Amino acid sequence: MVVLSAAINLTLDNLPLCIVTFPLLATVLIALFNRREIWRNLVAVSFSGIVFYLCVQLFLNVLEAPVVLTWPQYLGVGFEFKVDLFGALFALFASLVWFMAALFSWTYMSHEHRRTRYYAFLMLTLTGCLGVFLTGELFSLFFFFEMMSLTSYVLVVHAETKEAMAAGRNYLYLSIFGGLSLLAGILLLQYATGTTAITPQGEMLAGAGSTRFFITAFLMIGFGIKAGMVPLHIWLPKAHPVAPSPASALLSGIMIKTGAYGIIRVVNLIITPAAAEHGHWHFSENAGYVMIWFAVVTMFSAAVMALFQSNIKRILAYSSISQMGYILMGVGCAAYLGYEGAIAFGGFTYHILNHAFFKAGLFMMAGAIYARTHELELSRLGGLARSAPVTTVAFLVSAAGIAGFPGFNGYISKTLLHHAIVEAFQHHHLFSLRLAEIIFTLTGALTVCYIFKLFTGIFTGSRPAHLTSIPREPFLEKAVFGAIAAAVLYLGLAPQAVLKKAIAPAANSFTYDSYKINYLLKQHFLNTADLVGVLIPIALGLTLLYVLKRRKLFQKVSFPAWLSIDRAVYAPLSRSSLALFTAAGGGLEQGIDGSYLRIPAAFGAVCRGMGLFEGDLIDRAGRRLNKAVVQVREKIYALWMALINAVFGNLALLLRRGFKTLFQVDYRPRGSKLFQVVNISNLDFDLLLIVMILVIILGLIFLFGH
């Protein structure tokens, strides 16, 4: 009993480490249960549920005091978990949505290939995602951020089609670029302030001069790519349609929130002063203004693109970008308002919660529709309401949430965000912020239009002739979709409880005036002004939907290729960069080669001009020196190439012989079944080895780290 009690106390004291370690342990078990499908699925679902339970316990503990877990530094770099209420809140809803997605995967993935690989990387990605929310300094965050990016790549390319591989390459390249940008910002921050702690550093950055601009820019690019911020969003519309629907739900509902989380920590915490009375708010205010306009462009342009798409998952992908614009606008308003930005903090935090549920739900429902019809084009769908009643109701509830109908969750967060942009305008009465408010309203109308275009296109009207028999909804789907609809309704009907128990306490982790936090708690949402403010975009959106459908403009309007940022900007930029580096390399090589001839001649000319030598002694010496240098260079080059050919030629021969032997043994009709599993040509076995090493390392840290 004493040992058990001590183990329980150790677990409670090390909850963050347990949370990121359990999915790794689940990955090992999933690999071991490769051929036992029920046990493998049960491991994924049960461990996701355990992680959610641990996140609940962590949130309850952090309500009392922050949880801090650190280890000694090596080479100046430490590993630290430091969980405040804001990070605990993110981990809580992320783990809940992940648990729902794991449940949904049980039915959705039953007819997919490579299911063991899918579940293994689903759990590895969970470790990376939750680690981002639980760390207390940027190097630790960077480790988990990159782990999440690399492991989620496998989920994007799961289908292994040409389209999936192209989308995966795009996602991987941008993730690597974002990771390098993030690392550059972290190193510059360490150089400028001597710390990478996620704490207010506005005073120290004020003395860093122009370096703070580069720090902010690098960090914003690194996190902005993952958040899908325009113009860094190009991976998202390509990755969502090809990934399995549960993975798309997590990409949109949770993983892009890691980018938003990083931006929030940078703009609303790291570059801000530690107290309201300090006079270093000017820099964060300017950063907030810039962020507002990046967000406005993101929300509006993505909504326009979503309006004229015909693929369900592509519509939802652009919708995710647009909704991230809402969140980032709140982030910008909070930074622009400084220590008076609590209302904006409440708006973007509430919208992050809302978006996690209704968008993850919409992607899973789209996956359920595809699983039963094998169709994603709206033109080939319709009339599915009777065949899938639970999906229809849950989809309608989620659509009402994202559209901002009163009584649903989106109404609360959009009302708070509208208050925030109005308050930002009143801060300095800039006309540009009044224009931002107008675009905010127009984007709301476009959101209503495209989301109900989606709903009516799938569930209403007559059913196409090729959709004769639709399979019934499985019980797990009904349970998951019902839970999502319940969450949307609860967040819309009980805003005071959410603000009081979660969002307002989380605001205390930032530098906000206590009066403004109390003002946030006193908001009453069912008043005439707020209702009129949301009913205007709803009326505009439904009118626009009627006009576009009546005149069949959805089928007639298409965007020209030059409007694609990928084709118009990134592709030419990559080609020109390649040409530039090639030209620079060629010029450097020619310069080095030419120096063998020019330097002796120039030396001889200088010597003759100074009268140091007579005749052609210098010319002859220069030619001999040049000849000797060229001969030495050629011999070194020949020896180097011979060494490379010898090493890699023999290595290639050895590898060919080794793999030929392995494959002969592995696929021999009477070969050893054990050898077929335990050999280095088995990728599942390699994955198992890697994860076991990670588990051992984290286990040693867990036992001996203090």
Strand content: under 5%
Shape: globular
Distance between the termini: 24 Å
| Total of helices | 26
Q: What level of helicity do the residues show? A: over 70%
* Overall tally of domains: 3
**Major β-sheet strand ordering:** 1-2
What this model shows, in words?
The protein has a two-stranded antiparallel sheet. The protein has 26 helices and 2 strands. It is an all-alpha fold and 706 residues long. It has helices spanning 2-13, 15-32, 37-64, 85-108, 115-134, 138-156, 162-193, 202-206, 211-227, 236-242, 245-270, 282-307, 312-337, 342-373, 389-403, 409-428, 431-459, 475-493, 495-507, 514-521, 528-550, 553-556, 565-609, 617-666, 673-677, 683-704; strands spanning 67-70, 80-83. Residues 1-10 and 665-671 have low confidence and may be disordered. The protein folds into 3 domains: 10-156 and 683-706, no CATH class; 157-559, no CATH class; 587-671. Helix 16 runs parallel beside helix 18 and helix 17 (431-459) crosses helix 21 (528-550).
